[in-house]
Amino acid sequence: MGRTRHSRLKQTVSYQTQGIFLGILLGLGAPLGGFLIQWILHWFLTGSSDNLWIQSEFEKHSFFYTYMTASTPIVFSLFGYGLGVLLDRLAYQKQNLEVVNVVLRGQSISDDMTGLYNHRHMMDQADKELERMCRYARPLVFMMIDIDNFKSINDQYGHLTGDQILREMAFLLRDNVRKIDIVGRYGGDEFLVILPEATLTSAFKVAEKIREHVDAFQFCKPNLFLSMTLSVGLAAVHGDCDMTRDRLINLADQALLRAKRQGKNFISS
C-alpha cells in the first residue's frame, strides 16, 4: 500500500485530492472535507487516530491541494503523493520552539550591557519578595550599590572603558552574593540586590564581602589598571505588610547617600 521515503522528508507535505475525495470536498466544504480526508487516511494507514495533528490550507483551481502536517511516518500512496511526516520532526520543531522561547524570555528580563536582570524584572521580583515577606513574616533586605566616581572614569577614559567596568562589576556582584539573592542593574552605574531571608546583620556581611572584592580588583584595559570602590546602602523590613517596593528602595537609596557622605567606599543602613 505504501512505503517510507526518507529522501522526500519535508516539513509540509502536499498531495492532490481527486476522484472520490473531490466528491467529499464538494459535499462537505473544503475545510471540513479536507480534515475528514486526512483523518480517514491517517486512520487507514496507522489503524489509530492517536497523535494526529493537522494544519490545512486549500486552494481551488482545477483540483484541490491540501497542505497537511501530521504526526505520522511519511507514507506515500501508489501515485507517489506524500501523506504525512515523521513524528520526530514535530518533536524536533517543538524542542526548537521551546529553546527559542527560553532565549526570548532571557532577553526580555536581562540587561544588555551586564547580563544581569534588568530594571523591569527587578521591580517584579521586588514585588514578589515583599509579598512573600508579608505572607510568611520573613525578613527581607534591599541593597543599593553605586560605583564611586564612575562619571569621572567615563569622562577621562571614555564610555567603552566605562562599559567594561560595568560588565566586570556585574561579574563581581554575581560571584559574591548568596545563591538565593537576586542581582540586577537598577540604572546607570547603580545596582540593586534583593536579599530574601536576610537581616541587616547578614546583609551587611554580604555587602562587606562585595566591597572588599571590588576594592581589591584591578579593572584593566590595555596599558591601564584601574582600582574602583563602591558605596552601599541597606534597607530592611520584617513583617511590615504596609511596606511598598518604592518606599523600601527609597530607604536603601537614602542609606546609599549617607554612605557617599561618609567618604565613599562605605556601607550604611
Automatic annotation (TrEMBL):
GO terms for molecular function: diguanylate cyclase activity. It catalyses: 2 GTP = 3',3'-c-di-GMP + 2 diphosphate. The chain crosses the membrane at residues 20-44, 64-87. The keyword Signal does not apply. Keywords: Membrane, Transmembrane, Transmembrane helix. GO terms for biological process: cell adhesion involved in single-species biofilm formation; negative regulation of bacterial-type flagellum-dependent cell motility. Its EC number is 2.7.7.65. It is an enzyme of class 2 (transferase). Residues 138-269 form the GGDEF domain. InterPro entries: Diguanylate_Cyclase, GGDEF_dom, Nucleotide_cyclase, Rev_trsase/Diguanyl_cyclase. SMART domains: GGDEF. It holds the Pfam family GGDEF. One of its GO terms (cellular component) is plasma membrane. This is diguanylate cyclase. It comes from Candidatus Abzuiibacterium crystallinum.
